Structures are given as structure tokens and as C-alpha cells.
């Protein structure tokens, strides 16, 4: 059996959690990540017949039956992941049409997966329908995006347009824009269902006065999406109270569409 702490997906996960903490996006136990793994990826490292614990999920997600997830633990600190991955992370297999999560590895202190497991699993199911290559769902509390939800309208088109206007590359990185949920109680199936619904049309979903969800094909891509949106929000928070003399115009954004072969969300730019 190979050492799971040397698995590429484990190294990638530890580096990403550490990097997110270092960006100030995951104070205390803030944030959570789930990375979908194929059985063939996990098999060289673990005895897949040895189930440590069976945990009811409290929801149904038949699309995820038999899938494996490397996921951060509830109450665990991103800051500590690199020092004790086997306590702060776990690998679960989803069975019984999504109703059961079988713990195969990790959460060594008797812990469990993130309180946001419903939002993660429902978002995976939603994104897989749009893009079968989706593997990652990531949640965190980036300072400027959060700040922006206090002072900017939560209208999705307006919120997206503001972010696009803040750096030239934004529209290229997330041409579908960002979707926005109003404040809702976190950790519930309701916010999970609402997030998954928003994930059908965008890989970024802002939770007003809380944080953001990102989805992507790997940890780097997902991190980069959030990083780009957060950079734009930072610029917005620096300039929002100042007279704006210049901006990126819709005409210029159409040039970016042509140059980078992307298409902005329908109806978000003037013709
Ligand atoms: O688990 O970020 O939304 C910490 C959170 C919950
Ligand atoms: Zn949160």
C-alpha cells in the first residue's frame, strides 16, 4: 500500500488549504474544500473495504453514488491542515444514493466532514451536469468580496459587471459572471439546494455577508477563480468611495470576448 500522505491529490489539497489560509480567506474554522476522486486514484493508497464510520448525510444525491471525496473536517482550521492532515481531512465514499458517507480515511480524532457538506455535494452534482470534468467545490470568506456585499447591490448582473470592470482579465476568467445568494442560514440543506441551483449557471456563487463558493476541474483552477474575483473586489473596495474617471467599457469587453474566444453571459453587456 502506498503512503497516502504522498498522493498527488493529498499534496495538492494540503498546499491549497495552506495557501487559502495565507490569503486570509479562512480564519479559524472558516471555509471548506471537497475534491472528488476516482476509485482508481484512491485504491493504491487505502483498503477500500475498511470503513471506519458510516455517517448519514441527511440528503439524497444519486449522481454521486460511489464517488470518493477528500474533504475538510467540521470545526477544523485550514491553518492546521498541513501539520495534521489525517485529523483535519477525511476521505469518504458516498453510497445509498447519497444518503450515506462512508469514512475510509482521516478525521482521526473522531471528527466528521464539513458542516457545509450538503452545499458541497449538491454543488458537485449540479456542476457535473454542466461539466463532467468538475472535481472541486471550494468555500471561503475572502475579505473584499464579503465587504462588497455590504455596500454593493446584490443584483447578479450589476455585481458581475462591477467585478468585470475592476480588472481586464475578470471577464476572461469568469465570463459566465458570479451568481449571488442573499444572506441565508449556513450549514443547511436549504442553502445547499440554493447554492446548487445557482451553480447551474456559474462556477462562482457569492453568499452575501458570508463568503463565496467556487467550483472547477481542479484545485488550482478553482482557487484561481476565487482569487481573481477577490482581486476585483479589492479594487472595488479601494475605489468605490472615489469619483470614477475611467472604466472598462462594454465595447472594450467585446474586444476581450473576441481576443480570448469567450462569450460574456447573455444580456450582461450592452450590444
Ligand atoms: O465551516 O465556513 O460556512 C466554516 C464555514 C461555514
Ligand atoms: Zn463559511
Describe the protein's architecture and organization:
With 271 residues, the chain is an alpha+beta fold. It folds into two domains: 1-115, Class II aldolase/adducin N-terminal domain (L-fuculose-1-phosphate Aldolase); 138-265, L-fuculose-1-phosphate Aldolase, CATH 3.40.225.10. The protein contains eleven helices and nine strands. The chain has helices at residues 8-22, 39-42, 78-81, 85-88, 117-130, 143-151, 156-166, 170-173, 189-199, 219-239, 250-260; strands at residues 32-37, 53-56, 68-72, 89-95, 100-106, 136-140, 178-181, 204-207, 211-216. Strands 2-5-4-3-1-6-9-8-7 form a nine-stranded mixed sheet, with helices on both faces. Helix 5 (117-130) packs parallel to helix 9, helix 6 crosses helix 10 and helix 7 crosses helix 10 (219-239). The longest helix has 21 residues, at 219-239. It is elongated and about 60 Å long. The model has no long low-confidence stretch (mean pLDDT 98). The structure holds Dihydroxyacetone (2HA) and zinc ion (ZN). Zinc ion binds next to loops. Residues 30, 139, 141, 186, 210-211 line the site of zinc ion.
Amino acid at each position: 500500500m502506498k503512503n497516502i500522505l504522498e498522493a498527488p491529490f493529498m499534496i495538492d489539497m494540503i498546499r491549497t488549504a495552506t495557501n487559502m489560509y495565507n490569503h486570509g480567506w479562512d480564519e479559524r474554522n472558516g471555509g471548506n474544500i471537497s475534491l472528488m476522486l476516482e476509485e482508481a486514484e484512491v485504491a493504491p493508497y487505502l483498503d477500500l473495504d475498511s470503513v471506519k464510520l458510516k455517517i448519514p448525510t441527511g440528503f439524497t444525491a444519486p449522481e454521486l453514488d460511489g464517488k470518493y471525496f477528500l474533504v475538510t473536517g467540521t470545526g477544523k482550521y485550514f491553518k492546521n491542515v498541513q501539520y495534521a492532515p489525517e485529523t483535519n481531512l477525511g476521505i469518504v465514499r458516498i453510497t445509498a444514493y447519497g444518503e450515506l458517507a462512508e469514512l475510509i480515511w482521516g478525521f482521526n480524532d473522531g471528527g466528521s466532514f464539513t458542516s457545509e457538506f450538503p452545499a458541497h455535494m449538491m454543488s458537485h452534482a449540479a456542476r457535473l451536469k454542466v461539466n463532467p470534468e468538475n472535481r472541486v467545490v471550494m468555500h471561503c470568506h475572502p475579505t473584499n468580496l464579503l465587504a462588497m456585499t455590504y455596500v454593493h447591490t446584490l443584483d447578479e448582473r450589476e455585481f458581475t459587471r462591477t467585478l468585470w470592470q475592476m480588472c481586464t482579465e475578470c471577464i476572461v476568467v469568469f465570463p459566465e459572471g458570479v451568481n449571488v445568494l442573499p444572506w441565508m442560514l449556513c450549514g443547511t440543506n436549504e442553502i445547499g439546494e440554493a447554492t446548487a441551483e445557482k451553480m447551474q449557471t456559474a462556477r462562482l456563487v457569492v453568499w452575501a455577508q458570508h463568503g463565496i463558493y467556487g467550483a472547477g476541474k481542479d484545485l488550482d483552477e478553482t482557487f484561481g477563480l476565487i482569487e481573481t474575483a477577490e482581486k476585483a473586489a479589492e479594487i472595488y473596495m479601494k475605489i468605490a468611495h472615489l469619483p470614477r474617471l475611467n472604466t472598462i467599457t462594454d465595447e472594450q469587453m467585446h474586444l476581450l470576448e473576441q481576443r480570448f474566444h469567450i462569450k460574456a453571459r447573455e444580456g450582461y453587456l450592452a450590444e
